[in-house]
Amino acid sequence: MPGAYDALSARILERIGFQAIQASGYGIAASMLGIPDIGILSMADMLDQTRRMVQAVNVPIMADGDTGFGNAVNTYYTVRAFEAAGCGGINLEDQTFPKRCGHLDNKTVISMEEMVGKVEAAAAARRDPDFIINARTDAIAVYGVDEAIRRGNAYARAGADLIFVEAPQQKEDIERVIKAIEAPVSINLADGGKTPAVSIPELQKMGAARVSVPVATIFSAAKGMIDALTLLYEKRETPSAVRPDCMLTFSAFTDLVGLPQYQDLSNVYVKS
Questions:
Q1: Is residue 103 scored above 90 in pLDDT?
Q2: Assigned domain for 89 exists
Q3: CA–CA separation, 137 vs 115, rounded Å?
Q4: Where does residue 58 rank: exposed (0-12), middle (13-18), buried (19+ CB within 10 A)?
Q5: Share above pLDDT 70 across residues of the chain, in percent, rounded to a whole number
Q6: How many structural domains are present in the chain?
Q7: Cα separation, 15 vs 50, whole angstroms
Q8: Which end of the chain is less crowded, N or C, counting CB atoms within 10 A of the terminal residue's CB?
């Protein structure tokens, strides 16, 4: 599940063929506010942007619910809101507020008991039993692998469908949490992050139930814009005139955003 940060990136992922998408809080913070993922985005910000993604595609999108944006009662409301927006599931993490990207240093986590209450509230809040509660633990960075396993099993007993173990730093740790947690386990591959670059087929062989790749879209978009716009700045010509392969053509982009379908609708319904 690659991470999308807006409706366009979600559309691109769907067109490529991915069958599910993760809403990337890291990417949404960067694209909406131009800042790191350090807990500044509000629930309303995240909800509005995720709703736009849901409306743009026909594949399931898993929301990024951060810490539930408060206590267990806030978490209950958060799940209700994202499910009503059309999401297929939600990530909820056990960091303290304000949270930060799982691959940054100096994280802190709430008690296991408090997070269990949040997971129970989340499970009770959903109306559709197929809406996925993906409970994330950042405990490895604070207390180690044993505590992440203990928490993962507790969150599964509390009603989580999927356990997201963030930032294991060794391949052996990935294998260990997958085997020791008595629920499906999700692994996050953040380009340049703390988790080793294990291939997706290898993770599948280990038994990982889901692999998220959250920042590939925003990192590649930023690199593409820097490259193309540096040409504009230095050469004083449109980037496509200098290097035609550095950007989509006008016709390719209008096709990507669905202009032909809107023209078809116009031909059928717009009466002169």
A1: no
A2: yes
A3: 9
A4: exposed
A5: 99
A6: 1
A7: 18
A8: C
